[in-house]
């Protein structure tokens, strides 16, 4: 299936007809993923204009941003989750073709996506659970010495969750844990490109900026910070910027 054919899909019903075989001979482009996510109501980047009538995103933890990607919505379509897992695995294998005993993600969206990646690689799978103070807890299994753990996330905004997952896995295992020398990320919107000297391999990168409320340079011009759902319903769905 060509890029042009994907970009010609005009609704979610069309997306649900897609399968991994449509992309087996090539990489999906950033334009295609953006189109797919937009059809799912899960992607928006604020135009780079100083227009106070255009809002910006209020993130879950209180930060402000000039864009958002709701990967959870996209991955809730299981065919898309499987397609995108194949896309990331293809990119990882070009850099690291070594053993993978486990694939681990974080709760919640990362759990479904990392499971699809594990299935493709023939690896075992589990995910960490959220703990107090932004920690991640590993408690159901013991990883054996020599079993290589590939960390996978569906979205990377900073390295906070990735490192919390890694620290949780280490704390939850009696024996030292061997991590693969790469980290896999579906959507990368971060300025971090290495984790413990290993490259972050991403399927798609988008330049989106995050600020604290105090640092935000859009608030002073009168741009309102709105939750992503409100931005989508009030602006994008109505054909505004």
Notable features of this structure?
241 residues; alpha/beta; 7-stranded mixed β-sheet; 4-stranded mixed β-sheet; 8 helices; globular
Describe the structure.
The chain is α/β, with parallel strands linked by helices and 241 residues long. The chain is 31% helix and 24% strand. The mean pLDDT is 94.
Which whole number gives the mean pLDDT?
A: 94
Strands ordered across the widest β-sheet:
7-6-5-8-9-11-10
Q: Number of helical segments?
A: 8
Distance between the termini: 29 Å
> How would you describe the shape?
globular
Low-confidence stretches: none
Number of strands: 13
> What is the helical fraction, as a range of percent?
25-40%
Summarize the structure.
This protein has 241 residues and is α/β, with parallel strands linked by helices. Helices cover 31% and strands 24% of the residues. Strand 10 and strand 11 (198-205) form a beta hairpin.
Secondary structure blueprint with pairings:
Elements: H1 3-7, H2 12-15, H3 30-39, E1 43-45, E2 56-58, E3 64-65, E4 67-69, H4 71-75, H5 78-95, E5 102-106, H6 109-121, E6 124-130, E7 136-137, E8 148-156, H7 160-171, E9 178-188, E10 194-195, E11 198-205, E12 210-211, E13 225-226, H8 228-234
Parallel strand pairs: 2-13, 5-6, 5-8, 8-9, 9-11
Antiparallel strand pairs: 1-4, 2-3, 3-12, 6-7, 10-11
């Amino acid at each position: 299936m060509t890029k042009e054919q994907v970009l010609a899909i005009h609704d979610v019903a069309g997306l649900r007809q897609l399968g991994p075989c449509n992309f087996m001979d090539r990489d999906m482009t950033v334009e295609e993923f953006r189109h797919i996510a937009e059809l799912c109501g899960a992607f928006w980047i604020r135009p780079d204009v100083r227009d106070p009538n255009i809002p910006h995103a209020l993130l879950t933890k209180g930060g402000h941003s000039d864009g958002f990607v709701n990967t959870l919505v996209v991955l809730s379509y299981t065919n898309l989750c499987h397609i995108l897992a194949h896309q990331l695995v293809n990119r990882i294998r070009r850099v690291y073709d070594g053993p993978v005993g486990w694939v681990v993600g974080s709760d919640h969206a990362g759990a479904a996506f990392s499971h699809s990646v594990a299935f493709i690689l023939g690896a075992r799978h589990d995910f960490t659970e959220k703990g107090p103070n932004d920690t991640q807890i590993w408690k159901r299994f013991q990883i054996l010495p020599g079993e290589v753990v590939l960390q996978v996330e569906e979205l990377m905004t900073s390295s906070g969750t990735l490192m919390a997952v890694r620290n949780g896995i280490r704390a939850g295992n009696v024996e030292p844990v061997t991590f693969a020398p790469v980290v896999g990320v579906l959507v990368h919107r971060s300025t971090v490109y290495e984790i413990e000297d290993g490259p972050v391999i991403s399927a798609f990168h988008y330049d989106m900026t995050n600020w604290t409320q105090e640092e935000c340079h859009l608030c002073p011009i009168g741009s309102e910070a709105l939750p992503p759902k409100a931005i989508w319903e009030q602006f994008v769905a109505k054909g505004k910027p």
